[in-house]
Amino acid sequence: MAKFTVLNHPLIQHKLTLIRDKHVGTKEFREVANEIAELMVYEITRDLPLEDVEVETPMGKTTQKQLAGKKLAVVPILRAGLGMVDGVLELIPAAKVGHIGMYRDEQTLKPHEYFVKMPTDIDQRELLIVDPMLATGGSAIMAIDALKKRGAKAMKLVVLVAAPEGVKAVQEKHPDVEIYAAALDDHLTDTGYIFPGLGDAGDRLFGTK
Ligand SMILES: O=P(O)(O)OC[C@H]1O[C@H](OP(=O)(O)OP(=O)(O)O)[C@H](O)[C@@H]1O
Ligand SMILES: O=c1cc[nH]c(=O)[nH]1
Ligand SMILES: [Mg+2]
Protein backbone atom coordinates (compact mmCIF):
# COMPACT_ATOMS: atom_id res chain seq x y z
CA MET A 1 0.00 0.00 0.00
CA ALA A 2 1.41 3.38 -1.01
CA LYS A 3 1.99 6.06 1.58
CA PHE A 4 -0.50 8.70 2.62
CA THR A 5 1.32 11.75 3.94
CA VAL A 6 -0.01 14.92 5.53
CA LEU A 7 2.45 17.74 4.83
CA ASN A 8 1.91 19.70 8.00
CA HIS A 9 4.63 22.34 7.68
CA PRO A 10 3.53 25.35 9.79
CA LEU A 11 3.31 27.62 6.71
CA ILE A 12 1.08 25.09 4.97
CA GLN A 13 -1.21 24.79 7.99
CA HIS A 14 -1.41 28.56 8.38
CA LYS A 15 -2.23 29.20 4.73
CA LEU A 16 -4.83 26.44 4.63
CA THR A 17 -6.55 27.96 7.66
CA LEU A 18 -6.67 31.29 5.80
CA ILE A 19 -8.61 29.87 2.86
CA ARG A 20 -10.96 27.76 4.99
CA ASP A 21 -12.54 31.08 6.03
CA LYS A 22 -15.74 31.47 4.03
CA HIS A 23 -15.24 35.26 3.88
CA VAL A 24 -12.07 34.94 1.80
CA GLY A 25 -12.74 36.04 -1.79
CA THR A 26 -11.69 34.60 -5.12
CA LYS A 27 -8.46 36.59 -5.48
CA GLU A 28 -7.03 35.58 -2.12
CA PHE A 29 -8.31 32.00 -2.39
CA ARG A 30 -6.54 31.61 -5.73
CA GLU A 31 -3.28 33.15 -4.54
CA VAL A 32 -3.08 31.14 -1.35
CA ALA A 33 -4.11 27.81 -2.95
CA ASN A 34 -1.18 28.21 -5.35
CA GLU A 35 1.17 29.14 -2.50
CA ILE A 36 0.19 25.97 -0.63
CA ALA A 37 0.70 23.87 -3.78
CA GLU A 38 4.16 25.37 -4.17
CA LEU A 39 5.11 24.56 -0.57
CA MET A 40 3.75 21.03 -0.95
CA VAL A 41 5.80 20.42 -4.09
CA TYR A 42 8.91 21.68 -2.32
CA GLU A 43 8.35 18.97 0.32
CA ILE A 44 7.36 16.22 -2.11
CA THR A 45 10.41 16.72 -4.34
CA ARG A 46 12.81 16.38 -1.40
CA ASP A 47 13.87 12.90 -2.57
CA LEU A 48 14.26 13.54 -6.32
CA PRO A 49 17.38 11.73 -7.53
CA LEU A 50 20.49 13.75 -8.35
CA GLU A 51 23.47 13.03 -10.59
CA ASP A 52 26.94 14.49 -10.92
CA VAL A 53 27.61 17.10 -13.56
CA GLU A 54 30.76 19.00 -14.39
CA VAL A 55 30.45 22.77 -14.44
CA GLU A 56 33.00 25.50 -14.95
CA THR A 57 32.61 28.45 -12.60
CA PRO A 58 34.60 31.67 -13.13
CA MET A 59 37.13 30.07 -10.74
CA GLY A 60 37.56 26.71 -12.50
CA LYS A 61 36.07 23.27 -13.06
CA THR A 62 34.02 21.48 -10.40
CA THR A 63 31.67 18.51 -10.13
CA GLN A 64 28.23 19.37 -8.75
CA LYS A 65 24.68 17.95 -8.64
CA GLN A 66 21.80 18.25 -11.05
CA LEU A 67 18.40 16.57 -11.21
CA ALA A 68 18.48 13.10 -12.74
CA GLY A 69 15.87 10.55 -13.61
CA LYS A 70 12.32 10.90 -14.78
CA LYS A 71 10.98 14.21 -16.00
CA LEU A 72 7.85 15.56 -14.38
CA ALA A 73 4.41 16.50 -15.61
CA VAL A 74 1.62 18.21 -13.69
CA VAL A 75 -1.90 16.90 -14.24
CA PRO A 76 -4.71 19.08 -12.85
CA ILE A 77 -8.16 17.53 -12.52
CA LEU A 78 -10.37 20.28 -14.00
CA ARG A 79 -11.60 22.61 -12.95
CA ALA A 80 -10.42 22.99 -9.40
CA GLY A 81 -7.01 21.37 -10.00
CA LEU A 82 -6.13 24.37 -12.17
CA GLY A 83 -5.94 26.32 -8.94
CA MET A 84 -2.74 24.48 -7.99
CA VAL A 85 -0.88 24.42 -11.33
CA ASP A 86 0.82 27.82 -11.17
CA GLY A 87 2.16 27.02 -7.72
CA VAL A 88 3.73 23.79 -8.98
CA LEU A 89 5.17 25.52 -12.05
CA GLU A 90 6.84 28.16 -9.87
CA LEU A 91 9.20 25.43 -8.70
CA ILE A 92 9.23 23.20 -11.79
CA PRO A 93 8.85 25.67 -14.67
CA ALA A 94 9.78 23.17 -17.37
CA ALA A 95 7.15 20.59 -16.37
CA LYS A 96 4.62 19.62 -19.01
CA VAL A 97 0.94 19.97 -18.15
CA GLY A 98 -1.74 17.38 -18.93
CA HIS A 99 -5.42 18.11 -18.30
CA ILE A 100 -8.21 15.80 -17.15
CA GLY A 101 -11.72 17.23 -17.07
CA MET A 102 -13.98 15.64 -14.51
CA TYR A 103 -17.17 16.71 -12.79
CA ARG A 104 -19.06 15.04 -10.01
CA ASP A 105 -22.78 14.48 -10.40
CA GLU A 106 -24.29 16.38 -7.47
CA GLN A 107 -26.93 13.71 -6.80
CA THR A 108 -25.04 10.45 -7.27
CA LEU A 109 -21.55 11.89 -6.46
CA LYS A 110 -20.24 9.80 -9.37
CA PRO A 111 -17.52 11.42 -11.50
CA HIS A 112 -17.89 12.01 -15.25
CA GLU A 113 -14.87 12.45 -17.50
CA TYR A 114 -15.25 15.15 -20.19
CA PHE A 115 -11.71 15.95 -21.36
CA VAL A 116 -8.27 14.32 -21.46
CA LYS A 117 -5.19 15.83 -23.10
CA MET A 118 -1.83 14.45 -22.06
CA PRO A 119 1.78 14.91 -23.15
CA THR A 120 2.65 12.06 -25.55
CA ASP A 121 5.43 10.72 -23.31
CA ILE A 122 3.50 10.29 -20.04
CA ASP A 123 4.83 6.74 -19.81
CA GLN A 124 8.28 8.23 -19.20
CA ARG A 125 7.27 10.96 -16.79
CA GLU A 126 6.49 11.14 -13.13
CA LEU A 127 3.03 12.69 -12.89
CA LEU A 128 1.87 14.99 -10.12
CA ILE A 129 -1.92 14.83 -10.21
CA VAL A 130 -3.32 17.91 -8.48
CA ASP A 131 -6.82 18.59 -7.17
CA PRO A 132 -7.68 20.61 -4.06
CA MET A 133 -10.29 18.12 -2.82
CA LEU A 134 -10.21 14.35 -2.27
CA ALA A 135 -13.75 13.62 -1.07
CA THR A 136 -15.25 10.22 -1.97
CA GLY A 137 -12.16 9.56 -4.10
CA GLY A 138 -14.25 8.83 -7.21
CA SER A 139 -12.74 11.62 -9.34
CA ALA A 140 -9.14 10.80 -8.39
CA ILE A 141 -9.68 7.08 -9.01
CA MET A 142 -11.18 7.74 -12.45
CA ALA A 143 -8.37 10.19 -13.29
CA ILE A 144 -5.71 7.63 -12.32
CA ASP A 145 -7.54 4.96 -14.36
CA ALA A 146 -7.48 7.31 -17.38
CA LEU A 147 -3.76 8.00 -16.94
CA LYS A 148 -2.83 4.34 -16.52
CA LYS A 149 -4.89 3.47 -19.61
CA ARG A 150 -2.71 5.92 -21.54
CA GLY A 151 0.52 4.37 -20.29
CA ALA A 152 1.34 6.36 -17.16
CA LYS A 153 3.39 4.35 -14.68
CA ALA A 154 4.61 6.71 -11.98
CA MET A 155 2.30 9.17 -10.31
CA LYS A 156 1.57 10.95 -7.08
CA LEU A 157 -1.73 12.49 -6.03
CA VAL A 158 -1.44 15.92 -4.39
CA VAL A 159 -4.51 17.42 -2.70
CA LEU A 160 -5.11 20.28 -0.31
CA VAL A 161 -7.82 18.59 1.78
CA ALA A 162 -8.49 14.86 2.01
CA ALA A 163 -11.40 13.02 3.62
CA PRO A 164 -10.57 9.67 5.25
CA GLU A 165 -13.11 7.99 2.93
CA GLY A 166 -11.31 9.27 -0.18
CA VAL A 167 -7.87 8.28 1.02
CA LYS A 168 -9.09 4.74 1.74
CA ALA A 169 -10.85 4.43 -1.63
CA VAL A 170 -7.80 5.57 -3.64
CA GLN A 171 -5.45 3.36 -1.63
CA GLU A 172 -7.69 0.34 -2.28
CA LYS A 173 -8.04 0.92 -6.03
CA HIS A 174 -4.56 2.25 -6.73
CA PRO A 175 -2.21 0.94 -4.04
CA ASP A 176 0.82 2.11 -6.07
CA VAL A 177 -0.09 5.81 -5.96
CA GLU A 178 1.25 7.88 -3.08
CA ILE A 179 -1.11 10.54 -1.74
CA TYR A 180 -0.04 13.86 -0.25
CA ALA A 181 -2.43 16.24 1.50
CA ALA A 182 -2.10 19.54 3.33
CA ALA A 183 -4.75 18.28 5.77
CA LEU A 184 -6.74 15.16 6.60
CA ASP A 185 -10.19 16.41 7.58
CA ASP A 186 -12.85 14.83 9.72
CA HIS A 187 -15.51 13.30 7.48
CA LEU A 188 -17.76 13.60 4.44
CA THR A 189 -21.18 15.16 4.92
CA ASP A 190 -24.27 13.36 3.61
CA THR A 191 -24.13 15.63 0.54
CA GLY A 192 -20.56 14.50 -0.17
CA TYR A 193 -18.71 17.61 1.00
CA ILE A 194 -15.62 17.45 3.18
CA PHE A 195 -16.12 18.71 6.73
CA PRO A 196 -14.74 21.17 7.75
CA GLY A 197 -13.13 21.42 4.29
CA LEU A 198 -13.09 24.46 2.06
CA GLY A 199 -16.57 24.28 0.55
CA ASP A 200 -16.74 23.90 -3.21
CA ALA A 201 -13.15 24.52 -4.28
CA GLY A 202 -13.95 25.06 -7.97
CA ASP A 203 -16.63 27.62 -7.20
CA ARG A 204 -14.40 29.41 -4.72
CA LEU A 205 -11.48 29.53 -7.18
CA PHE A 206 -13.48 30.71 -10.15
CA GLY A 207 -16.24 32.74 -8.50
CA THR A 208 -19.01 30.60 -9.93
CA LYS A 209 -21.27 30.68 -6.90
O1 LIG B 1 -13.49 12.79 -4.41
P1 LIG B 1 -14.76 13.15 -5.13
O2 LIG B 1 -15.98 12.76 -4.36
O3 LIG B 1 -14.79 12.68 -6.53
O4 LIG B 1 -14.85 14.75 -5.12
C1 LIG B 1 -13.76 15.57 -5.40
C2 LIG B 1 -13.93 16.25 -6.72
O5 LIG B 1 -15.00 17.21 -6.66
C3 LIG B 1 -14.52 18.49 -7.05
O6 LIG B 1 -14.68 18.71 -8.41
P2 LIG B 1 -16.12 19.08 -9.06
O7 LIG B 1 -16.82 17.84 -9.49
O8 LIG B 1 -16.84 19.98 -8.13
O9 LIG B 1 -15.71 19.84 -10.38
P3 LIG B 1 -15.09 21.30 -10.54
O10 LIG B 1 -13.64 21.17 -10.23
O11 LIG B 1 -15.36 21.65 -11.94
O12 LIG B 1 -15.78 22.22 -9.57
C4 LIG B 1 -13.06 18.42 -6.68
O13 LIG B 1 -12.28 19.41 -7.30
C5 LIG B 1 -12.67 17.02 -7.05
O14 LIG B 1 -12.32 16.85 -8.40
O1 LIG C 1 -15.85 19.37 -0.07
C1 LIG C 1 -15.77 19.20 -1.31
C2 LIG C 1 -16.01 17.95 -1.90
C3 LIG C 1 -15.90 17.84 -3.26
N1 LIG C 1 -15.59 18.93 -3.98
C4 LIG C 1 -15.37 20.15 -3.42
O2 LIG C 1 -15.07 21.12 -4.11
N2 LIG C 1 -15.47 20.24 -2.08
MG1 LIG D 1 -16.68 21.93 -7.91
For this entry, give a set of tags.
UPRT; magnesium ion binding; 33% helix; binds uracil; two-stranded antiparallel sheet; Rossmann fold; eight-stranded mixed beta sheet; 209 residues; alpha/beta; binds 1-O-pyrophosphono-5-O-phosphono-alpha-D-ribofuranose; binds magnesium ion; globular
3D structure, described in words:
β9, α5 (164-173) and β10 form a beta-alpha-beta unit. The strands form three sheets. Strands 1, 4, 5, 6, 7, 8, 9 and 10 form an eight-stranded mixed β-sheet that branches. The mean pLDDT is 97. The chain has 209 residues and is an alpha/beta fold. The protein has helices at 10-20, 26-44, 82-91, 138-149, 164-173, 201-206, and strands at 4-6, 50-57, 60-67, 71-78, 96-97, 99-104, 111-117, 125-134, 154-162, 178-184, 187-188, 194-195. Residues 80, 200, 202-203 line the site of magnesium ion.
Radius of gyration: 18 Å
Under the CATH scheme, the architecture is 3-Layer(aba) Sandwich
Total beta strand runs: 12
Task: Kindly estimate the percentage of residues that lie in beta strands according to DSSP.
Answer: 25-35%
The dominant shape is globular
Mean pLDDT metric = 97
Q: Provide the helix percentage.
A: 25-40%
How many H/I helical runs? Answer: 6
Q: Please indicate the count of domains.
A: 1
Structural class: alpha/beta
Pathway: Pyrimidine metabolism; UMP biosynthesis via salvage pathway; UMP from uracil: step 1/1
InterPro entries: PRTase-like, PRTase_dom, Upp_B, UPRT, UPRTase/APRTase
Catalytic activity: UMP + diphosphate = 5-phospho-alpha-D-ribose 1-diphosphate + uracil
Protein name: Uracil phosphoribosyltransferase
